[in-house]
Write a structure and sequence with these properties.
Radius of gyration of chain B: 30 Å
Low-confidence stretches of chain B: 6-18, 108-113
Largest sheet of chain B: 22 strands, antiparallel, barrel
Order of helices and strands of chain A: HHEEEEEHEEEEEEE
Number of strands of chain B: 43
Shape of chain A: globular
Radius of gyration of chain A: 34 Å
InterPro entries (chain B): Beta-barrel_TonB, Plug_dom, TonB-dep_rcpt-like
GO cellular component, one term (chain B): cell outer membrane
GO molecular function (chain B): siderophore uptake transmembrane transporter activity
Helix content of chain B: under 10%
Number of domains of chain A: 2
Mean pLDDT of chain B: 90
CATH architecture of the largest domain in chain B: Beta Barrel
CATH class of the largest domain in chain B: Mainly Beta
Largest interface: A-B, 76 and 86 residues
Structural class of chain A: alpha+beta
Shape of chain B: globular
Oligomer: heterodimer
Strand content of chain A: 35-45%
Membrane topology (chain B): Multi-pass membrane protein
Number of domains of chain B: 3
Strand content of chain B: over 45%
Protein name (chain B): TonB-dependent receptor
Low-confidence stretches of chain A: 1-20, 38-42
Chain lengths: 210, 799
């Protein structure tokens, strides 16, 4: 019996050789290859994070319009930013003088990146921002100054403000900064907005007028 | 063709010589996979134009043969037809191997519509191709809700994460064409990167019974399969065009398949989808548009004895996130919760602005398998995945153009699997897996939520299946996994110390001066054991019982370990925990199925005890210059989940049928003795369908989807100060929205042009009554209602 046929030969290669051991060896070397590939990869840590958006220092600087030496500074400092566990510390430099009128400006600073953010908000993007104020417990009269930055929509930004300290009292001043509001309105001077997200929201407590 | 010519020439040349026609050919037919004889096979002798039948021992005899070529075509019920030819030059004996169990061995398909389960004893439901086509314009998460007990956890209505029996994200394992999806599945707003149109069949397996796929599927496994390969010379395809009123969206998908009788195959598929802002019954949902395009190609050779495949798929999604959900601090959240309408409502447009996501996913797979006679099948697979996720937030100035979150996850996997199926009554399957994963997070100007890390996985498993008797099948398996995570992370010094890591993990610190940061190299090794065993008992012709026990073990994912920072879109600080242990689940399930000509019902119950269950919970408020942020901390507790899923259909008449899908689930934190968060409420879906096959396969159905109010939820409310009034207010983030009942309409007909070409036309109306509602499992429920009425039309051309 002498049979040879090309069709049969191919079948023979397919399943007559039981080369399982060979296959196993192939797998083993492939796995080893992968392990080597893995161990060769770079050890990149992505770099130390830079935090360009954080506002660590928020300051309201008040100056008596009749006495440049009568200043009040209230500030909130959060050295580890929005998501750090440290609670912001507040400093109120002293009491307001009853009967005096003050002008105030806002200062925003990122101490982590050593970056001034005030200009970004008040010069570059006043159209996207809006300051809102609130006074609780204090006998004060508040208005947006005539020389305040005017937004393209005609509303005053709330960067430069005027405060009249009336009678002796103690309470708090709230400062909020909103970003990308749907609408803003300064008709009641303190300001209202809808649809924006908060960039700054601080309630300065222990403020007094003497 | 050449072979035929040669054959003809040879046959012709034979006649030219004097013939010696006294030879005998003895043949023996054996089964390829186990060597058993094949009786009653038909053998067609081409040269003699004669038929023979093999005897009890698989043998046959051809006498009085002349020398020359002998061509035999062997066919047998359940076997692939095989043609062999020999040169006869004397008495000849040949053993011929044919495979009798092609279908049972899941190798080659005879028809495209065949559906096959992945498991034998697990709670598995298969969603077939014709059902999936209805979801062409939607997402994987939407389609999976076809299965009773499967819900979804959403961010809006385009980010849909599947949820099986109350569990989601890392607790579900998604396999796309046998590749485990590695696409940063840990986040609730990270939807699976799958184009539903690339799937031809989806299996949903509740629990972790399918050990070959992984040992950490505490919730379940979703197996997505492309078209089965048919060994026929054929070219076919499908094109679907759809449009919808809500979101003014369109979708276009097309696929083409080419198969050869030799086993070669190739296919290509692509999808385009877009929609603009969706709308609720009362207002537009600004910035909820989606743009998606995807394609996949596949080619290879598939034969019974060996085969290979190369597959590549790509998906690119750009998803807008509801503008009103972008909030700066907890006060914005108060404003949103207290307002019945979202704070930003604008006119419809297709534009997608910040906040938005851009996600690209590449998947490349190649595999090879070979069968050995009397042994089984050996498969080898390599796959590579690249997942790039960009999340854009509303940021100041130029930063607005820059993603706040930028993560690239690359994964290489090598898989070897051996399936010993020479004895169909006692199959054994074992395998080995190695995986390398690398996450790359460049600097984006905000702190990384997930750090750079490298992950190494190794897994090995053995599963076995015994057919104990005609009515009883038993399966069991065990798996071991090793995971190593090697991360590089900058912690803020204040956070590192506040968490007490400076005491517990001082050895992770990399020495050096990093200012206010601590640079660390956390390395964790996890050893996990998982196991599964199940039994199937066929009670009688109409009913069967399944019982299953699974042990699953899931190590903490990178988010659970390393999360550390402000999640802007959620306005909360999320904190992981380096101290976490793997989560261990013990799940017991029982299924009863009954089917007769009129009624089909499946009743699935489960009891799942999860120790060291990881979840996010509010743990207080943290102050900053931006105001207060709620802190959501990952915590571990012991949880128990149990429930019942019912799926039934009753054919009232030949034309009318009624269907019901009901699912009841409870989840409790047994350590704190309180309900678990985000557990789906009781829901029941009832539908009535009229079908008339004589009238272009016409069908029309009306469904009611009734979702109850979740009355068991943990109280995670917290207090905060309203900056304008100075008053303390309670923020209710816990109370679920009220119950709702939605009605849906669906109708379709199929027009056949010829044997292979038909057109399916479908019209659907979702939320017919335009009901306003909010869904407890939608993260944007604090900000806006869910979708109003949506009319969809779809044309499907099969050719």
């Amino acid at each position: 019996m002498n049979i040879n046929n090309s069709n049969f030969k191919t079948m023979k290669i397919n399943y007559l050789n039981f080369n399982f051991m060979k296959t196993t060896r192939l797998f083993a070397s492939a796995f080893l290859g992968l392990a080597l590939l893995a161990s060769c990869s770079d050890d990149d840590d992505g770099g130390q994070p830079n935090e360009e958006e954080v506002i660590t220092n928020v300051t309201l600087e008040f100056v008596n319009i009749n006495d440049a030496n009568d200043t009040v500074t209230i500030e909130s400092i959060d050295p580890d930013g929005d998501d750090g566990p440290t609670v912001p510390t507040q400093n109120v430099s002293g009491p307001f003088t009853a009967g005096a009128t003050y002008t105030a400006t806002v200062d925003l600073f990122n101490s982590i990146e050593n970056e001034d953010i005030t200009e970004e908000v008040t010069v570059d993007e006043p159209d996207e921002h809006f300051f809102i104020y609130a006074i609780n417990g204090l006998d004060m009269t508040f208005s947006r100054s005539a020389n305040d930055v005017v937004r393209p929509d005609g509303n005053n930004l709330g960067f430069r403000t005027t405060w009249v300290a009336n009678t002796a009292s103690t309470g708090s001043i709230t400062l909020q900064l909103f970003h990308e509001s749907e609408s803003v309105d300064d008709t009641n001077e303190f300001g209202t907005q809808t649809g924006g997200s908060t960039d700054v929201n601080i309630i300065f407590t222990g403020v007094s007028i003497q | 063709m050449t072979r035929l010519i040669i054959g003809l020439i040879m046959a012709y040349s034979c006649y030219g010589y004097s013939q010696d026609c006294s030879y005998t050919f003895l043949g023996e037919l054996n089964d390829f996979h186990d060597g058993s004889p094949i009786e009653s096979a038909t053998i067609f002798i081409k040269e003699l134009d004669k038929y023979l039948i093999s005897d009890f021992d698989g043998k046959f005899k051809i006498e009085s043969l002349c020398s020359g070529t002998l061509t035999l075509t062997i066919s047998h019920v359940g076997c692939e037809t095989k043609t062999v030819s020999y040169d006869v030059d004397g008495d000849t004996f040949k053993k011929i191997l044919i495979e009798h169990h092609v279908e049972e061995l899941d190798e080659v398909s005879v028809s495209t519509n065949a559906s096959r389960k992945e498991t034998k004893t697990a709670q598995e439901t298969v969603i077939k191709s014709n059902t999936l086509r209805r979801y062409s314009s939607l997402s994987l998460g939407d389609a999976l809700k076809e299965v009773s007990g499967v819900s979804s956890i959403n961010t809006g209505n385009t980010i849909v994460k599947p949820m099986i029996n109350g569990l989601h994200s890392s607790r579900l394992l998604i396999l796309n064409n046998n590749v485990r999806l590695q696409d940063q599945e840990w986040g609730i707003e990270h939807a699976p990167n799958i184009d539903i149109n690339s799937a031809s069949q989806i299996s949903v397996i509740k629990g972790s019974g399918a050990l070959a796929y992984g040992g950490d599927a505490i919730g379940g496994v979703i197996v997505i399969k492309p078209n089965r390969i048919i060994r026929r010379d054929t070219l076919y395809g499908r094109t679907i065009i759809g449009g919808q009123t809500n979101g003014r969206g369109y979708n276009l998908t097309s696929s083409l398949y080419k198969n050869y009788k030799s086993g070669w195959f190739a296919s290509i598929q692509g999808t385009l989808k877009q929609n603009g802002d969706f709308e609720t019954p009362d207002y537009n949902l600004n910035n909820t548009g989606v743009k998606s395009h995807s394609f996949s190609v596949r080619a290879g050779k598939r034969q019974f004895e060996s085969g290979f495949e190369v597959y590549y798929s790509f998906i690119d999604n750009e998803i807008g996130i509801l503008s009103a959900s972008h909030i700066g601090n907890v006060n914005d959240l108060i404003t949103a919760i207290n307002s019945p309408r979202p704070s930003i409502i604008r006119n419809f447009d297709y534009d997608i602005t910040n906040p938005r996501q851009k996600v690209k996913h590449h998947l490349l797979k190649t595999n090879y398998y070979k069968r050995f006679k009397n042994f089984g099948k050996v498969s080898l697979q390599y796959d590579y995945q690249n997942n790039n996720r960009l999340e854009f937030d509303i940021r100041r100035g130029e930063l607005n153009e820059r993603a706040a979150l930028d993560l690239t996850l690359q994964t290489h996997t090598l898989l070897a699997d051996v399936n010993l199926d020479s004895n169909l009554d006692r199959k054994i399957n074992f395998g080995i897996l190695t995986r390398y994963q690398e996450n790359d997070a460049p600097n984006t100007g905000v702190r990384r939520l997930i750090p750079n890390y490298q992950k190494y996985d190794f897994g090995t498993y053995v599963t076995s299946e015994w057919q104990l008797s005609d009515n009883v099948l038993l399966d069991a398996g065990i798996r071991y996994d090793f995971n190593r995570v090697d991360a590089k992370k900058y912690y803020r010094r204040t956070r590192w110390e506040e968490r007490g890591y400076d005491v517990d993990f001082a050895d992770f610190v990399i020495p050096g001066d990093f200012g206010s940061d601590v640079f660390t190299n956390p390395v964790f090794n996890y050893h996990n054991i998982s196991a599964a065993t199940g039994i199937r008992y066929n009670i009688n012709e109409t009913s069967y019982l399944l019982a299953n026990y699974n042990l699953a073990s899931r190590p903490p994912n990178p988010a659970e370990l390393f999360s550390d920072g402000l999640h802007h879109s959620a306005a909360r600080i999320e904190l992981g925990d380096l101290r976490f242990n793997p989560e261990i689940a013990n799940r017991l399930s029982v299924t009863y199925s009954y089917q007769n000509s009129k009624f089909h019902g499946v009743f699935e119950t489960f009891y799942n005890v999860v120790n060291d269950y990881m979840y996010l919970r509010p743990s207080g408020v943290q102050q900053s210059n931006r105001g207060a942020f709620p802190v959501w901390q990952y915590e571990q507790t012991n949880a128990t989940l149990f429930g019942l899923d019912v799926s039934s259909q009753y054919n009232i008449t030949q034309n009318f049928s009624w269907l019901n899908k009901t699912s009841f689930i409870k989840g409790y934190d047994t350590t704190e003795d309180s309900p678990l968060i985000d557990i789906p409420a009781f829901s029941t879906l009832n539908g009535i369908t009229y079908t008339n096959n004589d009238w272009y396969n016409f069908s029309v159905s009306l469904k009611s989807e009734w979702v109850f109010e979740q009355n068991e939820f943990p109280d995670f409310d917290f207090e905060t100060v309203n900056p304008t009034t100075g008053e303390t207010v309670l923020l209710d983030v816990s109370t679920p929205p009220p119950a709702y009942n939605l009605f849906h309409f669906y109708s379709e007909a199929t027009f056949s042009f010829n044997e292979t070409t038909d057109l399916n036309v479908a019209l659907g109306v979702n939320n017919i009554l335009n009901t306003s509602y909010r869904n407890y499992l939608n993260r944007l429920r604090f900000f806006a209602d869910d979708l109003g009425r949506n009319i969809t039309i779809q044309l499907q051309l099969n050719f």
